Amino acid sequence: PYIKELFGLSELEKQICDKFGLKQVVIVPGDSDGSELVKKELGRAGASVFRKLAAANDIIAVAGGSTMAEVANGLNVSSQWKGNVFVPARGGLGERVELQANTIASIMATKTGCSYRLLHVPDHLGEEAYHTLMQDPNIQEIIDVIRRARIVLHGIGDAMTMAKRRKTEASGLELLKKDGALAEAFGYYFDEQGRVVHNIPTVGLRIEDIMRTEVVIGIAGGKSKGKAIAAVLRFGHEDVLVTDQAAAEIIVES
Ligand code: F6P
Prior knowledge:
The chain has about 250 residues and is α/β, with parallel strands linked by helices. It is built from twelve helices and eleven strands. The strands form two sheets. It has a seven-stranded parallel sheet with strand order 1-11-10-5-2-3-4. The protein has a four-stranded antiparallel sheet with strand order 6-7-8-9. Helix 4 runs parallel beside helix 5, helix 8 runs antiparallel to helix 9 and helix 11 crosses helix 12. The protein is globular and about 55 Å long. The two termini are about 25 Å apart. The mean pLDDT is about 95. It binds 6-O-phosphono-beta-D-fructofuranose (F6P).
């Protein structure tokens, strides 16, 4: 708390909370764009916020990405996690194995002494493959579990950065640009107003599931993500934001 007062971060937290109608905002000092240390701190803060909001016997759906990997690092075994199940929020989004939601869910479960369920679906699902998968009873069963998640933990990215990280073809990049895609979260691309403009075809949580999830926690920082984070906040279904000072200074002006 002392450090927050010193940097004026408590005031900034309150401003962002009010501006976007959030329940809680936590800001760590610095800019995670240029500092691994700040990114670790962001992950630790995310883990601590999440720990306070989790109960026993919860289903927790988690997204992938390097920030979520740091959140996983910040978790520890405790009796409070009793009976919790970690699941990936959605199927393959074109990430490297270390950054996939399946990997993060299994690490979080191991660190907390909980169980996990995985969703094995390939990236870039075609229409036909999608329908076939959806008829598979095993996939259907895990999707039912995912859709009952009480808590969603997710990262946020800049749309173009994420599309390139996923090796989206040039024509796809053009389409995203044309539609004003600015942000990406849980496989959905958003424009500046927080409207969904594209969606990666996969299975798991749909946007309507996110809308009615009891606790949605976004964890993302770095100056380069400021505008993207503001766009996802405009979408209007986040409850808690954990970010850093550099992003927060942009979010409050967006
Ligand atoms: O691909 C999973 C994901 O959570 C995206 O939805 C998000 O944009 C991205 O990862 C964030 O990744 P990072 O924390 O590495 O910036």
